[in-house]
Every structure is written in structure tokens, then in C-alpha cells.
Input
Amino acid sequence: MSTAADTAPDDATTDGPLLTPIQAKTLDALRRSGEPLVFDQDLVADIRTEMRVALDGFSERLDDGLELFVTKHRIASVLDCEAHFLAPDEFEWTPASAKGQIAHRAIQLLLSWRGEPSPGELVDAAMDRLAEEDRGIGMWIATLDEGDQADVRGLSTERVTKFVESFPPLDRRANPVTEAAAQWPVSGPILLRARVDLMIGKPAGTESRKVIIDLKTGRVGPRHRQDLGFYALVETLVRSVPPRKLATFYLDAGEAQTEDVSERLLRSAARRTLDGINAMVELGSEHRPPVKRPGSSCRWCPLAETCDEGQAHMASFDGG
Output
């Protein structure tokens, strides 16, 4: 069966691998239905101009020599709670925090692997390759003892197993890519950067064919759709052709929540991105005092113990 997500339902054949019910459901959620989607190039040009003019204005307000890297995480953080955004980053690798990146590398290997490797084999190969990289998570993996290696291997294998069981075999003709990176503009003091978990679909003129997929564990959160909107915006700015569909795939539930890309979605993502950049500039270069906005991030905020607003927020959920 051709499982290219940019093909129409009647393009499927019956001579391919037999899909499980959940794989068939995933394929149905991601594939194209209805007429091909083509965005007016004037719309794309208008969004690009709006973003370019806004970034030029923000750049003039930055301190000399300062660079600003804009990601989905930084936008969400500054719009959630500015005090948390400015707090020192105390991130440390743990098996729980490393499993996602290791699993993504394993899935990347799966897409090009000949034969049918087990999830465990893919994870072992991913960890070996990451450990050879003298940076970031690779340096952390290289220092693990056998117990910690077994711990992170088990967590990562669980995630890869859920992916394999939930997704149909991905047709290479659909150009499936993991950890797909994009940056806009090409240079300047303010750069938008995106790294997509999984992208499926290949260009066809100005027709929108790509599907952007974010892999998640745990519960549904409103930020997830907003993250995908940022991805769609950056893809539009870089390629001049918006993706046709966005999907958050919840591995624990085996279910995809999808949204078709529209002009409204792209313009909303652009406004949210510019709001986030404006706040970063005000806080960083113009030294505006941060605004505290208690929320779910209070539970892992390094300021939680000394933040009255955060303590009150957490107490309200804990019955305090």
C-alpha cells in the first residue's frame, strides 16, 4: 500500500503491508481529502512582508551586537510567564528528558533502514551515533553507566515502539523527514528557527502537500496547536508554500489531532510570533520589568519557592 500522506484515498492499493486498525486510522487522519490546496502567492508575499518589516523594526530596538533566536519554546515561555522566561536555565539531561531526542534519532534511522529492525535495535544504533558526537546529549550519553543506559534505552524504546505500532510504513516517495530544520531569514540579528519531529510530503509547484507532525506523550495541551502554527509559519516563510495539514500525534493514546492550514491560522501564528518577539525585546534590551503569569509551568519553574503568585496557583490545584 502506498502510504504517502499527500496522495488521495483512492490512490491506495491492496498489495502492500497489512495495516493494523490504528495504523489505518493514522493514515486516514494524515492523508489528503478533497481538492488540492493552493494558497494565493499574494497572501504568502503579504505575510513575508509583514514579518520582514516587523523584524526590521525589532532589530532597531535591540542592543548593539545582540542576537535573538526565536523558537516555539521561547515564544511559549515568554507569553506564559515573563519571570520564568528570564529565570536561569537549569536544564540537565535525564533519562526522561533524553528519551524524546533519542527516539527521534531512532525513527530517523528507521526511515532509511533496510529490512525490519526492532525498536530496540534502532534505539541502540541511535544512542551509539549520538554518543560519537562531542556535544550536547552525545556527551551525556557517553558518560552513562550501565544502569542509566538501560534506563534511557527502555524509555526510548517504549516511545519508538508506540510510533511503529501507530504509523503505517512511510512511503519513501513521500519524502518523510525527521528533525526537519528550517530558519528564516537567512541572516540578521533576529532569526526564527524550527525543528519539526516529522514532515511528510514533497513539493508540487505551488500546491500545498506537506504534513507537519509533532510527536507527544501525555495529555493534550493548548500550546501544542500553537507550536504547530509556528512551524507552519516558518515553513511558509522559507518555502513560500504553506503546509496543507498540521498534526499532533499523541503516542500514549495512539491518536492524531489534525488541523488544516488556512490563512487565518497563518496570520494568527504570525501575530503570536511577533507578540513573543516584542516581549523578548522589551525584556532584554528595553529592560521592562517582567510580568508574572502563574500557570502550569509553575511546577518546574526555578523561581517557584520564592514566587508568591506561583505558590498560590499551585496551592489552588493541590487543595491548599
About this structure: The CA atoms of residues 22 and 166 lie 6 Å apart.
